[in-house]
Automatic annotation (TrEMBL), chains A, B:
Keywords: Amino-acid biosynthesis, Diaminopimelate biosynthesis, Lysine biosynthesis, NADP, Nucleotide-binding, Oxidoreductase
Domain Meso-diaminopimelate D-dehydrogenase C-terminal positions: 118-269
Protein name: Meso-diaminopimelate D-dehydrogenase
Binding site for substrate: 144, 169, 195, 245, 271
Annotated residues for binding of NADP(+): 11-14, 35-37, 65-68, 88-90, 117-121
Enzyme Commission no: 1.4.1.16
The reaction(s) this protein catalyses: meso-2,6-diaminopimelate + NADP(+) + H2O = (S)-2-amino-6-oxoheptanedioate + NH4(+) + NADPH + H(+)
Length: 321, 321
């Protein structure tokens, strides 16, 4: 069987991670990276985005490493008319709308579009569905972190006198314990997570003023347990330039009078790498479903697990079931 | 949409748990329990096993709550010729053979047979496959327990002077930690678990002799870390008559130079209840796949997650993805 021929569009953190993950696959080859730029820091072939329609016969699956804010809403449906696609669209409220648009585009052109892969949405979505299907009564909570929050780090960096800053979101241990015991009725987004800030100040800036600005910032920090740490630039550069993330899906189930805890945990060194790992695996499903004559959009809930694995079904059954 | 009409065959611990789980489902009704006995301790309709061929028009899915040692090998394929079925066949080495037999029987008669559901095989199988699909390099270990081991408890009860006994299998903390760090190359079944025995002796029996017999019992205890606790019958009856179980699937993955831990944990008050929870959910998939015109055997790896959930796909996508 010949390898799956893959391409990437978008070459930020996620695109670079997808390139790295594809390089480690036995059954997927990278044809090239579509980019607006002439030169990218890659050994891969760089193809001008303007030529995106010219490669429909050379590419089995297109990994759309595009942002959810504007790129995917603007470009994804048109790309799904040309290629089988995989995306990581993560605007949870808008996923049904995105699915409908991608479904129409992919069906019209005879392609498969796998949407909203990654880990949340993605692996966490799967675990929410599996866990709630197998226990008739349950309480289910998702916790995020310890992990870097891009939006909150940006908010810190906009404060006067802040030179560098990161914000980690960390699940509150007491909330986690309550969720595991099925006593998490009073858990909210705010009391389930604490917000840890690591800050390097500009020379002469007032740490007191900065801390006060943080603690009184509505939406972002008010109502949360907040930790503020001021550190040296050297410490910051050594310890706080990674992109760790992860979290837990905790389901406390009841069957009659018996209790059953189902917990799925991720601890990720580098968020875009793991997101890319999931995305690349679902590219197999996009290709295989299209090969089998299926068309339209699919979420991870609609795809049989074996379709994402490099091993064949018989080998998987012997090994994993 | 009318409810799924279900029946149970086999009314031991698992059959009773399946009855309890079905009673809590919004979309599944129990038609009856097939049994060799005239009277069962149930409010459900009891149907003689001899009449099993007479109800093919009244039953959408048959939950086969039968043992893997002899009942399933002897009876399952014949039942799959009559009904859509779900089983919990757990003889891992023989699952490919079982799948082939069930596939032939179900295809011949136009039914769907979902095989080897439960949690291992079952939910653990799913997690082994998902986790190993999304990281290109990995080390993966399955730990069982803390949980009651039926076979080991039976072995203890056969020792002279033992009145009552249970054996819990417990994951060794140091092995779990190694697995989480991706340093579990030397983990074996023996050093990954400790065996904890709780024993009530007959009057006049020698605890020393019993403990010695345990510690020198080949296969069952030799080579394991073993704890032996002698307790009163009152304590035994109060603390050790449950059927707790659970475990972990730990996958330490690598993407380039970054590390990614994926861990799935179950803590189950009562093993047959949770097994039944998974089994009942997969009954939905058996019925839905058959309604869609599919036939043959399916493992959990071959079934799209949404097919096992009581909620419809659109609602699941809005809620869980």
């Amino acid at each position: 069987m010949s390898n799956i021929r893959a391409a990437i569009i978008g070459y930020g953190n996620l695109g670079k991670s997808v390139e790295k993950v594809i390089a480690a696959q036995p059954d997927i080859d990278l044809v090239g990276v579509f980019s607006r730029r002439d030169k990218l820091d890659t050994e891969a072939r760089v193809i001008p985005v303007a030529d995106v329609e010219k490669h429909v016969d050379d590419i089995d699956v297109l990994y759309m490493c595009l942002g959810s804010a504007t790129d995917i809403p603007e470009q994804a449906a048109n790309l799904a008319k040309l290629y089988n696609t995989v995306d990581t669209y993560d605007n949870h409220n808008e996923i049904p709308r995105h699915r409908a648009e991608m479904d129409a585009a992919a069906k019209e052109s005879g392609h498969v579009a796998v949407i909203s892969t990654g880990w949340d949405p993605g692996m966490f979505s799967l675990n929410r569905t599996y866990a709630s299907a197998v226990v008739p009564e349950y309480e289910q909570h998702t916790f995020w972190g310890p992990g870097l929050s891009q939006g909150h780090s940006d908010a810190l960096r906009r404060i006067d006198g802040v030179k560098k800053a990161v914000q980690y979101t960390i699940p509150a241990e007491d909330a986690l314990d309550k969720a595991r015991r099925g006593e998490g009725q009073d858990i909210t987004g705010k009391n389930a997570h604490l917000r840890q800030c690591w800050i390097v100040t500009e020379e002469g800036a007032s740490q007191e003023d900065i801390e006060n600005t943080i603690r009184t910032m509505p939406d972002y920090f008010v109502g949360y347990e907040v930790e503020v740490h001021f550190i040296s630039e050297a410490e910051f550069d050594a310890e706080h330039t990674g992109m760790p993330h992860g979290g837990h899906v905790v389901t406390a189930g009841k069957i009659g009078e018996t209790n059953h805890l189902i917990e799925y945990t991720l601890k990720l060194d580098r968020n875009p790498d793991f997101t890319a790992g999931v995305m690349v695996a679902y590219g197999r499903a996009a290709h295989r479903l299209a090969q089998a004559g299926e068309t339209g959009a699919r979420t991870v809930l609609e795809i049989a697990p074996y379709l994402i694995h490099p091993l064949g079904l018989d080998e998987l059954i012997s090994r994993d079931v």
